Each structure stands twice: as C-alpha cells, then as structure tokens.
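Example record for the data management plan.
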Amino acid sequence: MDEEIYNSKCRQRYLSFNQYIKLKNETLETIELFKIQPTGVGKSLHERWLYSKAIVAENSFLLWRLEYTAGKNIDDLRKDFEHVISFYEQYASVLRTYHKDNNRSVFDLENVNEYCEYIGLISICYLLHLKSLIRRVATLVDGVERMNAGQDWLIEEFLSFGDLKRYDCESVLVPQPYLNLCEAFSAQDNDVSYLFLRKFLKNWYSELKATSWHDTHKSGQGYYGYWSFETACSVILLELDSDDELQQSVYYPKDLVNFYKNYQ
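Corresponding structural encoding:
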C-alpha cells in the first residue's frame, strides 16, 4: 500500500502513513520473532514459551485492528481473522498445560483491557459472518469443561446469539460504560434500545480512559485504532433498522456493518 492509497482508504485519521508503516513492521517483527523463540522472561522454558504465545496472540489482534484502521479490504480481513483466533488457542493450550488446568481462562474479564479485547473478538466474529468461530472464542474463557462460563451478563448475552447454550448471570464486570449496552439488550422496544446504544457509543471512549490504549494517538506510540466493535455488533444482533446517527461517530466501524448486511 502506497501513501496515496493509504490516505484514500484510512478509516481513522489519527495515524499518518509513516506511523502506520513503522507500527505494522514492528508488530509483524514481534509476531515472527516470538512464534519461533521464547521470551527471555520466566523461571522455566515452559514459562518463557507461555509469555511468547501471549505476545503473539495479542499482537496478531493488534495487527488486525491496525489493518482495519488503515483501510484493508474486509474480505481479506475476514480471511485473516481465523489466524488471530488460532493464535489465542495456541496460547490457551500452553497456558492450560503450564497451570495443569484445562479451564484456565485466557482473559481476565474483571480487567477492563481484557474485557474490551474479548468482547471485541466476539463482536468481530458476528460482523464478519464467522459465526462458526463463536464456540472457539467462548472456550478461550469458559475452559474445556466450561467452568468459567456465566461470569458476565453482557458476555453471556452476546454469546447466546451464536446458538450456544449459555448461562444465567446478573453481574456486569465492567459496568462503566457497559451498563448502557446491557440496557439496550434488555429493552423490549427497538427505539429504546437505540437510545441506549447511542448513549453507550457517545460515552464509550471517555469512559474507557482506564485502558492502556486510551489516548495513544497523542504520543504517536501504540495507536492501532479506536473501534467500538461491540456497538456495531449490537446493531446486527438487535436487528435495528437504522444506524444513521451511530455512523456519525469516529469510533463506529460502519464498514463492518455494511459488510455484514451485504455479505453474500
């Protein structure tokens, strides 16, 4: 991709072409390095490989988000996404072997960074018409015997649309800003759902200031894109007729919604 094409396709304007190329190359180098060698941190070789698998998984998802931000074709992003899930599964396998626990969770849902990451993975599966991946994504947290299922009301709600038998739960582990999204799913009227969804998206970025990625565009370091994939996913799961007002938000991945609606 040259600079002219980049400037015509870039989906958010916080990243210059040179910054994009630099960050892409650094992220690719990190992935390729730790795919073949363990980190230097850890008390044993197994632990060092554990950290390397975590780095590869996290960076593969960061790279996917960066490419979406830069304007990569969604058909190609769809092909890439299963590789992201595969890297998380490789990490899960090493993690569970290391701890001798088949139900060890890849994501700590009480951690706001990891909660956002996980609900983002779920949301993208739906948006890309990759519903077949939902069970695999669920297992990353649930564990092999599903011992960790039912921790969070909103996560359970999202997963239930994937034709999975899910669990009753009253807790919302990250209430700010996610309670508004819960209200959107709880409402019995689409107009009310849409009001809560608009409120959620309006406050989404400001209320996630505790995340590690918040305001990274200001430093020019580590900005991969600010995207509320869960808002877009909610539009399709709730079968809302219009998302016109949501499309005015810079954080709304409208191209994924359009892809979902026009997918053949």
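Summary line stored alongside the record: DSSP finds twelve helices and no strands in the chain.
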